[in-house]
Design goal:
CATH superfamily of the largest domain: HUPs
Helix content: 40-55%
Mean pLDDT: 91
Distance between the termini: 60 Å
Shape: elongated
Largest sheet: 6 strands, mixed
Radius of gyration: 24 Å
CATH architecture of the largest domain: 3-Layer(aba) Sandwich
Strand order of the largest sheet: 3-2-1-4-6-5
CATH class of the largest domain: Alpha Beta
Length: 353
Amino acid sequence: MCTESLPASIQELGPKEARLCLEIEKFGNLKSGTNFAKMSMLVGVSGGIDSTALLIIATLLARKSGGRVFCAHVDHGLRKESTTDRKFVENLCKRLGIPCESHKANIASYAKINSMGLEEAGRIVRYDFFKQCLKKFDADLLLLAHHVDDLSEDVIMRLLRGAGWPALGGMDAYDPARKLLRPLLSTRKNKLESFLRSINCSWCEDQSNLSDQYTRNRVRNNLIPLLLEENPNLGAGLLRLKQQADLDADFWRDQLANFFEYVENTSDGSFFVPCSILNKSHKALRVRIYKQLLDLLGSGHALSDSILQLDQGFLSQKSGSTYQFPGNKVVKISKKGLLFKVIKTIDRESGKV
């Protein structure tokens, strides 16, 4: 439990802790393009080191800049200690004078009903609840406590899944579509722990993090320590990788935006791309065009190998060929160009489209 001596302002912190808060503010401002501490912020808090530190730091920054802070906590119902975690978070919010919204979920049941793993089920339930809380509190931003160590794990997991570039760079610090900001993404976890110890604030330990049952835990507990033995500055290196990935992502967004001036959007929601434009495009741009158009057609993830086969078909001028993709998506090649569309399916029992 936190003591009564929680700091009321940044001025009450030691020089090192105050500097940490201001560095986090600077990073968050840079990524969001605004002074986020002046805004209304919802902080997702589990009670662990990362989110506990973020809640306190966000509160201190808000008091300095005139913003507001709210808290959202999800009890996943997977551990007997989860009720204690919830009470810890609620008590911390009382000490900070912050409104707190808690939700008790049955993640195991949700995962079973929807035929998915516990990790995925927990993530879906958490983000759904955060979305509800954003609306309830009329908050401008959702703050999550992912840090450099989490970024390292995310990059390794994406590498294991076969992610392409620039997605391989890892999670984003700012996602405007979801109003999501990760202001700790350039901060090491050990600094957050030192911060909490300096203000005599405890946190909750999730013993399930020690289990190798989950993929992320195996990466964290087994792979990351080996990589750190080879390169103690792994986090800094992957942070630079993320910066390069962000630059490249911005470049490709601009390239695709310029290209889409030549894409014909038909009345039935299909897309037609003239061969005359594709012929002038580098392969790196063409495959990204294919991926973007397939994503715009709706759900269904197109594999990299399938997209490369489509490009080979285009280069081979296989006029009349049709390539199928998940989500009932097809691409038809003609002499004039490529048609991207969704084919309608027929219900065999009713005969209806």
